[in-house]
């Protein structure tokens, strides 16, 4: 599983999965909206970039972005730290992509349909950030990033991945459900983005600082 989120358990119930069934969880980063339900998975081992812990402990958590950091610290026996890129299992690779946070990582998965990249919070909106389909009246996605220059590097790489046919799967948009015909979605992009900005209370920024 990638990220534990803060949403309802409806998807688990529908799939007939119990939280105890989950053995491995990769956290793209430790912001609360990605990790909030981590304590509900009693048998899972968590894979986190080592520098993400350092970053959250030294900087981000001071701003209130990671109230769950204490939970991870007190459950270190269930945390495996990664330094940089690492293939955890055949076809499932963690790739350090610091920008949104210092230890943010992507998860690359080799599927029958090609490479899928779970990009966490590097991308909020594929058309605007990777296809540059902005126009008059379009509101650019806002948010935050730790390192804007690194973010631009990561977006450049992901633009090429998109052009090569890789599936790009961001966290805070439902647009890929239609783009890649991924099945049932529980909301739409506009609702998801609005809910996200409400939940973070962060002001929108001009292009790219996602
Ligand atoms: Zn985040």
Features:
210 residues; alpha/beta; Metallo-beta-lactamase, Chain A; 5-stranded mixed beta sheet; 3-stranded parallel beta sheet; 19% strand; disordered C terminus; binds zinc ion
Pattern of helices and strands:
HEHEHHEEEEEHHEHH
According to CATH, the fold-level topology is Metallo-beta-lactamase, Chain A
Q: How many beta-strand segments?
A: 8
Class by SSE composition: alpha/beta
Which regions have little confidence, pLDDT < 50, spanning 5+ residues?
188-210
General form:
globular
CATH classification, class level = Alpha Beta
Largest beta-sheet characterization: 5 strands, mixed
Helix share, percent = 25-40%
Q: Any idea how many domains?
A: 1
Spatial strand arrangement across the major sheet: 4-5-6-7-8
Distance between the termini: 23 Å
Description:
- This protein is α/β, with parallel strands linked by helices.
- The chain has one domain (10-200): Ribonuclease Z/Hydroxyacylglutathione hydrolase-like (Metallo-beta-lactamase, Chain A), CATH 3.60.15.10.
- Helix content is 30%, strand content 19%.
- It is built from eight helices and eight strands, in the order αβαβααβββββααβαα.
- The protein has helices at residues 10-15, 32-35, 50-58, 69-73, 126-129, 148-164, 175-179, 189-200; strands at 24-26, 45-49, 79-82, 86-89, 92-96, 105-111, 114-120, 167-170.
- The strands form two sheets. It has a five-stranded mixed sheet, covered by helices on one side. A three-stranded parallel sheet has the order 1-2-3.
- A hairpin with a 2-residue loop joins β4 and β5 (92-96).
- The longest helix is centred in the C-terminal third of the chain and has 17 residues, at 148-164.
- It is globular.
- The two termini are 23 Å apart.
- The structure holds zinc ion (ZN).
């Amino acid at each position: 599983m990638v990220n534990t989120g803060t949403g309802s358990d409806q998807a688990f119930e529908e799939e007939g999965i119990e939280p105890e069934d989950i053995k491995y969880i990769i956290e793209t980063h430790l912001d609360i909206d990605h990790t909030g339900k981590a304590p509900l998975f009693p048998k899972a081992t968590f894979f986190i970039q080592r520098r993400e812990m350092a970053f959250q402990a030294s900087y981000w958590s001071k701003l209130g972005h990671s109230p769950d950091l204490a939970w991870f610290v007190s459950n270190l026996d269930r945390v495996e730290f990664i330094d940089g890129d690492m293939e955890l299992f055949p076809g499932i690779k963690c790739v350090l992509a610091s920008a949104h946070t210092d230890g943010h990582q992507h998860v690359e998965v080799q599927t029958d349909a090609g490479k899928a990249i779970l990009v966490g919070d590097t991308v909020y909106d594929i058309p605007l950030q990777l296809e540059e389909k902005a126009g008059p009246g379009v509101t650019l996605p806002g948010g935050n990033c730790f390192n804007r220059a690194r973010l631009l590097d990561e977006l450049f790489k992901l633009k090429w991945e998109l052009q090569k046919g890789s599936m790009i799967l961001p966290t805070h948009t439902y647009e890929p459900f239609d783009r890649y015909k991924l099945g049932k979605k529980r909301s739409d992009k506009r609702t998801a983005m609005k809910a996200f900005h409400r939940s973070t209370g962060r002001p929108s920024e001009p292009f790219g600082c996602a």
